[in-house]
Amino acid sequence: MRIFLSIVSYLFHPLFIPIGGTIAYFLVTPKYTPLEVQAGNILPIFILTIIIPIITYLILKNIGVVHSIFMPTTAERKYTVVIHIILLLMVINKVIPNNYLTELYFYFVGLLIASFSCLLLLFFNFKTSIHLIGISGLFMYLINLSIHFEINLVIAISIFSLLIGLVTSSRLYLKAHTKPELLAGILIGMLSQLLTIKYWL
C-alpha cells in the first residue's frame, strides 16, 4: 500500500498541475485553436513550470537548501514557492497574452493566487498541502470550463473528485500532512479558481 500511495504522490505532484490544466483546456475547448498556438503555449509552459523547476530543485538540493522533492519543512517550501510564483508570473505576462486565451490566462491567475496564499501561510509555519491545492484547483477549473463552454465533462470531473480523495489518502498515510493542512489545500485550490470566474465565465 505504501508503494502505491507513494506512486500516487509522485504522479500527481503539483509540478504537473500547470501543464495539466493547459492540456485540459486545449482538449475541451470548442474554440478553433491552430496547432502553432497550442504549441506556442504548451512548450513554453512545459519549460517554465516543469523543466526549470526540476533544474532549480537539483541546484537547491546540491547546495543543501532542500532535501526532498516533497519539501517536508516550511523553510524548504518558501524557496520553491517563491520560485514557482516568479515562473507563474512569467507565464501570465509573457506566454499566454501573446495568444489571447482568456480561460487559460485566468487559470494561471488562480494558480498564482493559490501560490501566494500558500506562501503567506508558510510565514505562519502552516504547511498547506500543495498536492491538494494543485489537484483541487484543476478539478474546479474543469467544472468552470464545463459551465463556460456548456459541455459535458462529468466523467473527467468524477475522475478528478476521486483523485482528490486518493491524493488526500496518500498524504495522510505517508504522514506528510495533518488533516487541517489537507483541508486548507483543498479550500485554497478550489477558492483560488472560483475567485477568477467572474472575469471570464
Summary, kept brief:
It contains 8 helices and no strands.
Q: Uncertain runs with pLDDT below 50, 5 residues or more?
A: none
Number of strand segments:
0
For the report, how would you describe the main beta sheet? Answer: none
- Please state the average pLDDT score: 90
Order of helices and strands: HHHHHHHH
Overall structural class, as computed from helix and strand content, comes to mainly alpha
**Helicity, as a percent range:** over 70%
When the domains are counted, the total is 1
What shape does the CA trace take?
globular
> Beta-strand percentage?
under 5%
Count of runs of 4 or more consecutive helical residues: 8
What is the rounded Rg?
16 Å
Q: What's the end-to-end separation, in Å?
A: 41 Å
Describe this structure in words.
- The protein is mainly alpha-helical and 201 residues long.
- The protein has one domain.
- It is built from 8 helices and no strands.
- α2 packs antiparallel against α3, α2 packs parallel to α6 and α5 runs antiparallel to α8.
- The N and C termini lie far apart (41 Å).
Q: What layout of secondary structure does this protein have?
A:
Layout: H1 2-11, H2 17-28, H3 35-62, H4 74-95, H5 102-122, H6 130-149, H7 154-173, H8 179-194
List descriptors:
8 helices; mainly alpha; 201 residues
